[in-house]
Amino acid sequence: MESTVSVSKGVFLFPNGFQNSKTLSKKKTNLLFCKLFQEECWYLTYRKNWEAIKTKLNELNQRSYSVLLNDIVNYIKQFYGSEEAFMLEGIIPSATLLTGVSQPDHVSQFDALINIIKDEISPHVAIVNSQDSLSLKHIVENMVWQLIGNDLKNDEECDVLSTKHKLKKSQCTMKTLKTWYHSKYTNESTNKKKKSISTKTLVIVIPDFESFNCHLLQDFVMIISSYISSLPIVLVFGVATSVSALHKSFPYEVSSKLLIKVFHSHSSAVYMNQVLEDIFLTHTVPFHLSGKAFELLTDVFLFYDFSVKGLVQSIKYCMMDHFYGDNTKVLCCKREDLEEAILNLSPNDLESIRQLKSFRPYLEKQDCRTKISLFEDDQYFRDALYKELMKLHDYLYSFYLCVKLLSTLIKDIPNNLLGKTVREVYTKCATECITDTPSFKECMQLLSFQSQIKIVDTITGALKLLNSHLQSVSPIKPLQATPKKNNNNTDKVFAHRELGESFAKTVRVHLMTFLRQLENANTEASISTAMDTDTNDNVENVPGSRYKLKEKLLKATRVEKIQSEFEMIRCRFISYLEEMFAKGLQPPHTQTFHEIMFFSDISNVKKHIVGAPRGALHTALSDPAHYLQCSCCRLPSPESVAGTLPDVCLAYKLHRECGKHINLYDWLQAFAAVVKPGENDEQRHHDPIIQSRFTRAVAELQFLGFIKSSKRKTDHVMRLTW
Amino acid sequence: MDEIYSKVVCRENQLNDLFNLFGDDNEPLPCSIFISGSMATGKTLCLQTVLNYLSYKHVFVDCIECYSSKIMFENILSALNDEDEDVKCENFMDFINCLNRLQNNYEPIVIVFDRVERLRNMDQNLLPVLLKLREFCKLNICTILVTHLIFENFNFKFGVREPIKLYFPNYNKEELFRIIFLYQKSFVQHLLNHFDIEDETTELIEKPELFANFLNAFLSVFYRPCRDLIELKHMARLNFIKYCEPIIKGEIQSNDLTKLWRHISPILKTSLELLYLRISDMRQFKPSPGKENSESLYAKEFCLEKTLKDELSSTKTFAQSFELPYFAKYLLIAAYLASYNPPKEDKRLFMKNHGKQRKQMRQIKAKAKINEKLSTQLGPKVFTLDRLLAIFYAILEDKIGLTSNLLAQIATLVELKLIAGSKEIDLDTAKYKCIVGYDFISAIAQTVGFNIRKYLYDFI
Ligand SMILES: Nc1ncnc2c1ncn2[C@@H]1O[C@H](COP(=O)(O)OP(=O)(O)OP(=O)(O)O)[C@@H](O)[C@H]1O
Ligand SMILES: [Mg+2]
């Protein structure tokens, strides 16, 4: 949320009325944003959209983690369970979770893990991060503190006595843990022997194994192992690379104290595809990314960090950029809310919608009278807008459907050019009219070479997808039953719908007929081939002559032609596909008012998402007017210098002309010459003001990492950049 | 007494020594004892049984845990104190005072410091003082130091009071056999816990001869690579299950030794490769009585074991076992090149127009190089961030900006322990080192279709 107009990139501290209590300060932050934006309807729409996405994301996370987490939980459960297993002396059961290299994503995963452990196994969970584990002491104290501390908090109400022993962190040793645990569980179980309270496992989670100093961890494991006979402890390691990391950093002496079970989590690329396909590449979310923007974000993911969280945050940023301060974006909402949103638009907003680029082609298609009324009559324009936006929704519906259909159809084609995942196909479809491209044609051709079984398979797959797509949309249906004001209007709108749900339904009907036909054709064709092979065999039995052979070959070619029943249908099928995709896969930027729902301003966002600190620094120093926007620093060319520039910039520019070693005296003189061009040489660099300004500029450059003092030559500094 | 000797086998000499040292109630204890011996040679076990048998007051202190001497002192004191109360003890003086306050009529007290080598780098004086603890207090106290190292490794200063030394040698094959055989019951129990077996077969399996046979076979394979009792016990436990499997299924008679041997020997050989890895193959759930079920489980498990083994044994699969982002791969390659190429050759390797010079250089170098060790086989050299980035941009085809994301990747690589260095990126001082091997890097390079040999000085 850019509530400041910032000149440079940086972190801005919002005075949010910080208070000591954490909950209070949180409320305050919320209040601040509420105060700032709450009346703005674009903000409300934004928030609504984002909330929707967030809940979906959470659901998805839950679904994708649950299997893995349950496995881990079951694994942990089996130790120290009812039948007091055969444990070997001093061996710690441990689970190793291979998490993949994107570390930002791990946090949520481990949070989920801890929650599920708390629910299902035991309340005693400690999470030991590498940041706060500088020494063994820290690790142990931290762990014990968490294990005991959490418990104290729970007990606070019922157990006044225990809270009287306020625990100091320095008192948290393994011994304290042991006595605490025994007083808690052995006493209890002797008291309530009949209830047979099973003792609770202590789970210690180490989420970032690689970042630990391995000697510390070794010692830690050794300590734990000497307590394992009296404390039921299970370790959970999060390893980003692979199991060998564990073996590499533990010598045998330590690893012999562990029993390791490995769990693999999803690869992050798979996870990203899932997130994108299920959440962002659907018609259900009103906010969409244009092909270019989408490509940028996925590239950042694939090339740089593999972080799904980062990806989602970038999308969020795009959303903020999309909505920020623009009331027309209120229209970027669900179908149901559209009508109301349009009614609430002010004439100004309408005017800015008329300015949209994609309105132009639409206008040109209309006759004179409508043109005028579109401009003059706000009500008329509203109606038209509504109609067009409904069309846009329909378009989106069928567009995503087609994207998904296309990607399932070509999924199995060897070396296809459109890509294997929905996301790749989407990027292609959203940037250009895919049906015109050679790669699409090639794909269709390859599709037309598929065998009967294969093609039947792909069609069934596509049908399955279609059905689920149709099902998912049904809850939205009631909108047709809630006509509010322009009742007749909606009817009209739905009357000439050629895309959208009805499109999906016709596609389904067609696919089903094709499927049936192809299946039937399949059997017929095989019969005919069987007959042919029969005759062929006969021919072969006859002693061969050249003539016969020729005849056979001829026959074979004719057989091909006879067989073409199946092929004919296949051919028809392919051309149907081509036709259908041509209709459904028009790129978004051809649609009227696509700007409202599609975000395409990447150049602006790119700077923020893919930050280039050095580049920014360079521009700031060589062309300060770019950021300062003052008239005094305007330069005729980026290389030129002027006395009005800030001192650092000046020093920076001058130093760029030097070699590896810079003589400070020369530099000072050059500096003085620019700052005070009038005076004579001798005097100006004796001026203490100039000298101190220069010294400060040099110090700043050193701080920024451009130069460094050199030991080899006195009065010289070294350049560090080129 | 006999009970002890049957519980702790093959350690008669050491047990006798200990008994002699602690011997009679009315004699004072020796001042200090130093016990050394490698892992799992029964040091702790012997001490524990002897002390328990004599029912002396004693404490075991694990020195790893004592990251501050305060913890050590408090642990000792609270264990010696009969009453349950919090002891506070900041330093050695306090400790002595507290000890002297203990009410006991010159009853023997033994303090065992396990893994005492840890105390060497704590406080200079601590160990010598512990060695003559008795001189500081009026107690019949004995300190026992237990360690893997020999006495000379402690570099005690001249004049320290020399403790009595005991040495626990490693076990030989027969001794290992006897010791593991002691645990036959628990092995069988473990097996029975995991399978539902009919009574007759249970009887068969419980026969000690069967286990003895298995153990012979097992040790004949494992004794050579591994002498460690704990690991042997662990591996034996895993393999005993497999040994008994055909008997449970009724495929092999329990007395058909040759068949059993033929069955187990390949299994032992494969599990030899899992030695020391400690990857659990424990079933998550007890297999149901149905035989097919457990069979399929085994098949699956075997596959899993195999892949795991592969993954662990070769660095190549290690490299493929996890994904790195595209540029991170290139950064890693660049780091490797920077580590293993001499900096002065950079120009030649990475500039496009180096043609002629290269030939001459080659001829001159050719002779010298034969003697020279391959620098890929010498360790990695340190390089600066500048050089890393320069090489990175030289080997990368597409032009990309130097973005913060890119710089963050370097930190990630450091975090993943693929590059050694500081996590902060600092133009001036940052020095890095690539710490992955050639196999690893060539596997990575393969995934991005980059020919790394072309750029390695050694291979030109
Ligand atoms: N002589 C023996 N008889 C029976 N069991 C033995 C014998 N020696 C070792 N063991 C078994 O091996 C295990 C490890 O022995 P112990 O803990 O005494 O070794 P250690 O020498 O103290 O090893 P570390 O130096 O690692 O502490 C014991 O728990 C015991 O089960
Ligand atoms: Mg020991």
From TrEMBL, chain A:
Pfam families: ORC3_ins, ORC3_N, WHD_ORC. Residues 343-601 form the Origin recognition complex subunit 3 insertion domain. Keywords: DNA replication, DNA-binding, Nucleus, Phosphoprotein. One of its GO terms (biological process) is DNA replication initiation. One of its GO terms (cellular component) is DNA replication preinitiation complex. Component of the origin recognition complex (ORC) that binds origins of replication. DNA-binding is ATP-dependent. The specific DNA sequences that define origins of replication have not been identified yet. ORC is required to assemble the pre-replication complex necessary to initiate DNA replication. Binds histone H3 and H4 trimethylation marks H3K9me3, H3K27me3 and H4K20me3. Component of ORC, a complex composed of at least 6 subunits: ORC1, ORC2, ORC3, ORC4, ORC5 and ORC6. ORC is regulated in a cell-cycle dependent manner. It is sequentially assembled at the exit from anaphase of mitosis and disassembled as cells enter S phase. This is Origin recognition complex subunit 3. It comes from Bombyx mori (Silk moth).
TrEMBL record, chain B:
It is found in: Nucleus. The keyword Nucleotide-binding applies. It holds the Pfam family AAA_16. Residues 324-456 form the Origin recognition complex subunit 5 C-terminal domain. The keyword Nucleotide-binding applies. One of its GO terms (biological process) is DNA replication initiation. Coiled coil: none annotated. It comes from the Eukaryota. GO terms for cellular component: nuclear origin of replication recognition complex. Keywords: ATP-binding, DNA replication, Nucleotide-binding, Nucleus. One of its GO terms (molecular function) is ATP binding. Residues 7-144 form the Orc1-like AAA ATPase domain. Belongs to the ORC5 family. This is Origin recognition complex subunit 5. It comes from Bombyx mori.
